[in-house]
Amino acid sequence: MASARETNPNFMNGVPELLILKLLQRGEMYGYEIVQAIREHTHEVIAVGEGVVYPVLHGLEQDGALKSRHKTVGGRSRIYYSLTAAGSRRLAELSRTWLELANAIQNMLAGGQHAHAIS
Protein backbone atom coordinates (compact mmCIF):
# COMPACT_ATOMS: atom_id res chain seq x y z
CA MET A 1 0.00 0.00 0.00
CA ALA A 2 1.42 3.39 -0.99
CA SER A 3 1.73 6.12 1.62
CA ALA A 4 0.03 9.48 1.16
CA ARG A 5 3.43 11.05 0.61
CA GLU A 6 3.98 8.81 -2.42
CA THR A 7 0.58 9.36 -4.01
CA ASN A 8 -0.18 13.04 -3.34
CA PRO A 9 1.93 16.16 -2.91
CA ASN A 10 2.69 17.12 0.66
CA PHE A 11 0.18 19.91 0.29
CA MET A 12 0.40 21.42 3.76
CA ASN A 13 4.09 22.18 3.26
CA GLY A 14 3.16 23.91 0.01
CA VAL A 15 0.69 26.33 1.60
CA PRO A 16 3.23 29.03 2.57
CA GLU A 17 4.75 28.84 -0.93
CA LEU A 18 1.34 29.23 -2.55
CA LEU A 19 0.38 32.18 -0.34
CA ILE A 20 3.72 33.93 -0.84
CA LEU A 21 3.55 33.57 -4.61
CA LYS A 22 -0.04 34.87 -4.63
CA LEU A 23 0.89 37.92 -2.55
CA LEU A 24 3.88 38.69 -4.76
CA GLN A 25 1.69 38.44 -7.86
CA ARG A 26 0.14 41.70 -6.64
CA GLY A 27 3.50 43.45 -6.27
CA GLU A 28 6.87 43.35 -4.57
CA MET A 29 7.07 42.94 -0.80
CA TYR A 30 9.69 42.34 1.88
CA GLY A 31 9.71 39.36 4.24
CA TYR A 32 8.07 40.74 7.37
CA GLU A 33 5.46 42.48 5.22
CA ILE A 34 4.61 39.05 3.76
CA VAL A 35 4.27 37.55 7.26
CA GLN A 36 1.81 40.28 8.22
CA ALA A 37 -0.11 40.09 4.93
CA ILE A 38 -0.67 36.34 5.30
CA ARG A 39 -2.15 36.88 8.76
CA GLU A 40 -4.29 39.76 7.56
CA HIS A 41 -5.58 38.17 4.36
CA THR A 42 -6.45 34.88 6.12
CA HIS A 43 -8.06 36.67 9.09
CA GLU A 44 -5.34 35.12 11.28
CA VAL A 45 -6.42 31.57 10.42
CA ILE A 46 -2.95 31.07 8.95
CA ALA A 47 -0.05 32.63 10.82
CA VAL A 48 3.44 31.77 9.62
CA GLY A 49 6.52 33.29 11.15
CA GLU A 50 9.66 34.64 9.61
CA GLY A 51 11.31 31.26 10.26
CA VAL A 52 8.93 29.78 7.68
CA VAL A 53 8.69 32.67 5.23
CA TYR A 54 12.40 33.44 4.72
CA PRO A 55 13.45 29.86 3.84
CA VAL A 56 10.56 29.68 1.35
CA LEU A 57 11.57 33.03 -0.17
CA HIS A 58 15.20 31.94 -0.48
CA GLY A 59 14.21 28.60 -2.04
CA LEU A 60 11.88 30.27 -4.53
CA GLU A 61 14.61 32.73 -5.45
CA GLN A 62 17.13 29.90 -5.96
CA ASP A 63 14.59 28.15 -8.19
CA GLY A 64 14.16 31.30 -10.29
CA ALA A 65 10.54 31.90 -9.21
CA LEU A 66 11.44 35.16 -7.46
CA LYS A 67 13.97 37.91 -7.82
CA SER A 68 15.11 40.25 -5.07
CA ARG A 69 16.53 43.71 -4.75
CA HIS A 70 17.77 45.85 -1.89
CA LYS A 71 15.80 48.99 -1.30
CA THR A 72 16.19 51.65 1.39
CA VAL A 73 12.92 52.96 2.80
CA GLY A 74 12.82 55.39 5.71
CA GLY A 75 16.51 54.82 6.36
CA ARG A 76 16.04 51.03 6.58
CA SER A 77 17.52 48.67 4.02
CA ARG A 78 15.17 45.86 3.10
CA ILE A 79 15.16 43.05 0.58
CA TYR A 80 12.10 43.20 -1.65
CA TYR A 81 10.95 40.15 -3.56
CA SER A 82 8.99 40.02 -6.80
CA LEU A 83 7.60 37.32 -9.03
CA THR A 84 9.34 36.22 -12.22
CA ALA A 85 7.72 34.54 -15.23
CA ALA A 86 8.76 31.18 -13.76
CA GLY A 87 7.12 32.22 -10.49
CA SER A 88 3.88 33.04 -12.29
CA ARG A 89 3.91 29.59 -13.89
CA ARG A 90 4.62 27.99 -10.51
CA LEU A 91 1.72 29.94 -8.95
CA ALA A 92 -0.64 28.75 -11.69
CA GLU A 93 0.45 25.13 -11.17
CA LEU A 94 0.14 25.28 -7.38
CA SER A 95 -3.21 27.07 -7.58
CA ARG A 96 -4.60 24.42 -9.92
CA THR A 97 -3.40 21.59 -7.65
CA TRP A 98 -4.73 23.32 -4.52
CA LEU A 99 -8.17 23.94 -6.07
CA GLU A 100 -8.42 20.28 -7.12
CA LEU A 101 -7.45 19.21 -3.63
CA ALA A 102 -9.86 21.65 -1.93
CA ASN A 103 -12.70 20.50 -4.20
CA ALA A 104 -11.97 16.84 -3.40
CA ILE A 105 -11.95 17.56 0.34
CA GLN A 106 -15.15 19.62 0.08
CA ASN A 107 -16.78 16.77 -1.83
CA MET A 108 -15.82 14.32 0.93
CA LEU A 109 -17.05 16.67 3.67
CA ALA A 110 -20.33 17.20 1.85
CA GLY A 111 -20.87 13.45 1.67
CA GLY A 112 -19.91 12.83 -1.95
CA GLN A 113 -19.21 9.24 -2.83
CA HIS A 114 -16.44 9.84 -5.33
CA ALA A 115 -13.43 12.12 -5.11
CA HIS A 116 -11.02 12.45 -8.03
CA ALA A 117 -7.43 11.38 -7.46
CA ILE A 118 -4.82 14.10 -7.51
CA SER A 119 -1.66 13.09 -9.30
Global Rg: 16 Å
Order of helices and strands: HHEHHEEH
**What's the CATH C level?**
Mainly Alpha
Biggest pleated sheet: 3 strands, antiparallel
Alpha-beta classification: alpha+beta
Q: Percentage of helical residues?
A: 55-70%
Give unreliable regions as ranges: 1-5
Number of domains: 1
Fraction in beta strands? 15-25%
With helices defined by DSSP (H or I, 4 residues minimum), what is the helix count? Answer: 5
Strand order of the largest sheet: 1-3-2
Q: Round the mean pLDDT to the nearest integer and report it.
A: 87
Structure report:
This protein is of the alpha+beta class and 119 residues long. The protein has one domain (8-109): Orthogonal Bundle (Arc Repressor Mutant, subunit A), CATH 1.10.10. Helices cover 57% and strands 15% of the residues. The chain is built from five helices and three strands, in the order ααβααββα. It has helices at 4-7, 11-25, 31-41, 50-62, 85-109, and strands spanning 29-30, 66-73, 76-83. It has a three-stranded antiparallel β-sheet with strand order 1-3-2. Strand 2 and strand 3 form a beta hairpin. Helix 2 (11-25) crosses helix 5 (85-109) and helix 3 crosses helix 4. The longest helix has 25 residues, at 85-109. The chain is elongated, with a radius of gyration of 16 Å. The two termini are 16 Å apart.
Short description:
The protein is of the alpha+beta class.
